[in-house]
C-alpha cells in the first residue's frame, strides 16, 4: 500500500515528506493506521547523527493508532482490527534472559534488529522507487507516517476513551518519566526529589514523584517559562539552571541533599551537577539519553564515601503490556495529566517546524497528527 511518511535521507538535513510503499504484515506482525506521534529528542539525535542509524529512515517512536490488519499467528481475539494501540519501541519476547528476570525493557531478542531499523528477520517493510529501495524503521515503529507495520510485541492495546493524541505520549515520555520515578528509583512518600529538565520526560518524572507522595519536588530548567508548567504538574519549586542549584537543594534539605535526583536532559555536565545534589545514601537516576559517544566524569571516591547509588533508567524500567494500560487508567481517573502535556499539534507536513520549536524549548511535548 502507498503511505505518506517523513523520511530522513541524510543527517543534519530536513525531513522530507515522501510517498512510500508499505508491505502488508507478515506472520506475527500488525498493520497500524497512525493517529499521532510525539516529537522527541531521541528522534533528533538520529537526525543529527548523535545516534548512528542506517539511512534512509522513518523516525518517530511515540506513536498511537488503530489496528487495520494482522498477520498470521496474531490472535484476533487478542488484537482485532479497530483496536486502539500505543506502540512500544522496546518490544519483548517474554522468554529471553532479561524477560524472565522481569526486565522486558532490556529484551535481547529485539534489541539488535530494533536498533538496525529492521524487523526480526532482518528485512524492512518500507521501500520506495521502482527498484524498491529499503527504507529503515527507527525503533521498529516508524511512526512519523500515516501507517506502519510493527511486531505484535510492539502493540499495546489501551482503552478507547483515551484520545490517541494523548495516548501517544504514554509510548515514550510518560512511561519513561513516570516509570523512572515509580519503578527505577522507587520514590517513597516524603522523599525530596530534584528533576533536571522540564520537557516531556522531566514533567513525567515530576508526575511520577507526585503520584508516589514525594514531600518536595524541585524542578530545574533553563527557561523561566517552565516555572508555571512544572508547578502545574506537581513541582513545589523551580530553580533556573543559572541559580546556585546545589546550594538551594541543600538549603531545602537541611544541608544534606535530596534522596532522589533525576537527569532528564542527557547532557554529561548536567549529570555531573545532578550528582552534587544527592544526599549521602541517595540515588541519582539518569533518564535522559546522551549522545552515544559522550562520557560523564563522576567522582568514584565521593560516590563510595557517600554510598550514592547511580542508576540508569531505560524506558522507565517499564513493562509496556503491564504499564501502558495502567497509565491510561490513571489518565482516565484524573490522576495523570496528559491533556496539558501536549502544548502544540502539527500536521505531518510541518514536522521540521515541530522540531525547531522543540529545540527552542517552546513546547512541553508537541504531537504530529496524521
Describe this structure in words.
This protein has helices at residues 41-48, 111-116, 164-184, 200-211, 226-233, 245-252, 268-276, 300-305, 320-332, 351-359, and strands spanning 2-8, 16-22, 29-38, 57-58, 63-70, 84-87, 126-128, 133-137, 147-151, 155-157, 192-196, 216-221, 237-240, 258-263, 278-286, 309-312, 342-347, 365-369. It has 370 residues and is α/β, with parallel strands linked by helices. α8 links the parallel β15 and β16 (309-312). α3 packs across α4 and α3 (164-184) crosses α9. 50% of the residues are buried.
Short structural summary:
The chain has 370 residues and is of the alpha/beta class.
The stretches of 5 or more residues where confidence is low (pLDDT under 50) are none
Care to count the β-strands?
Answer: 18
Q: How large is the radius of gyration?
A: 20 Å
- Going by helix content, strand content and strand pairing, the class is alpha/beta
Question: What topology emerges from the helices and strands here?
Answer:
Blueprint: E1 2-8, E2 16-22, E3 29-38, H1 41-48, E4 57-58, E5 63-70, E6 84-87, H2 111-116, E7 126-128, E8 133-137, E9 147-151, E10 155-157, H3 164-184, E11 192-196, H4 200-211, E12 216-221, H5 226-233, E13 237-240, H6 245-252, E14 258-263, H7 268-276, E15 278-286, H8 300-305, E16 309-312, H9 320-332, E17 342-347, H10 351-359, E18 365-369
Parallel strand pairs: 4-8, 11-12, 11-14, 12-13, 14-15, 15-16, 17-18
Antiparallel strand pairs: 1-2, 1-4, 2-7, 3-5, 3-9, 3-18, 5-6, 6-10, 7-8
Helix pairs in contact: 3-4, 3-9
